[in-house]
Amino acid sequence: MTISLRPVEEVDLPFLNRLTSDPDSTGDFQWYGWLNPHRLRRLWEDDGLLGDDKSYLIIVAGDDDVGFLAWTKVPTTKVSYCWSIGLIVAPEHRGKGYGTQAQKLIVRYLFDHSTANRVEASTEITNVAEQRALEKAGFTREGVLRGVGFRAGQWRDGVLYSVIRSDLDREL
C-alpha cells in the first residue's frame, strides 16, 4: 500500500505520545523512559509541529495513521546545514515497508523545499531492520558511531546513513 505524509493535527497528539512514551509502542530501540505528556501539545500549540528547525508529519496508509516522521536542522558550517530524520511506525504496522516509503518521501520533500545538500539518519547498530529500510530508501551507510547513544542503562554504538542531492539520480 502506498503511504502519504500529512501535518500533525491536534487529534494526533495522543497517537504521537503513545509512539514516543509508551514502551509497548516505541519499540526496543526508541524507549528512553517516560516523557512529559504535555510536551508535544506545547510544541503543537507553538508551531503546529512544523517549525523552521524541527518538524513532524504523520505517516498515513489508506485511512490509517501508521506512524510519524520527524526532521531536525543540523548546522554543518557557519553557512550550511543538513537534515537529520527519524521515524517511529506503530507496532501493528511494522514490517510492511511504510518506514522505507516515508523516508523516500521526506528526502524528496526536504531537497525540494530547502537548500540542504544532505539528509542523514542514524540507528543503533543492532537495529538491522531499520538499517535495511534506510538502504532500501537510498541511504548510504557511512560508518559506525561508537558509544553514541545511551539507552536502557548502556552506551550503544550507532550507524550513520546519508543521502546527498547528487544521489537523487538514483531512484528514490
Shape: globular
Percent helix range: 25-40%
- Helical region count? 5
Largest sheet at a glance?
Answer: 7 strands, mixed
Within the largest sheet, what's the order of strands?
Answer: 1-2-3-4-5-7-6
What Rg is obtained from the alpha carbons, in whole angstroms? 16 Å
Mean pLDDT: 93
Kindly report the CATH topology. Answer: Aminopeptidase
Q: Name the poorly predicted regions.
A: none
Tell me the distance between the termini: 17 Å
CATH superfamily: Gcn5-related N-acetyltransferase (GNAT)
Number of strands: 7
- Oligomer class: single chain
Strand content: 35-45%
Structural class: alpha+beta
The CATH level-2 architecture is identified as 3-Layer(aba) Sandwich
GO molecular function, one term: acyltransferase activity
Protein name: GNAT family N-acetyltransferase
Organism: Nonomuraea purpurea
Domain N-acetyltransferase: 3-157
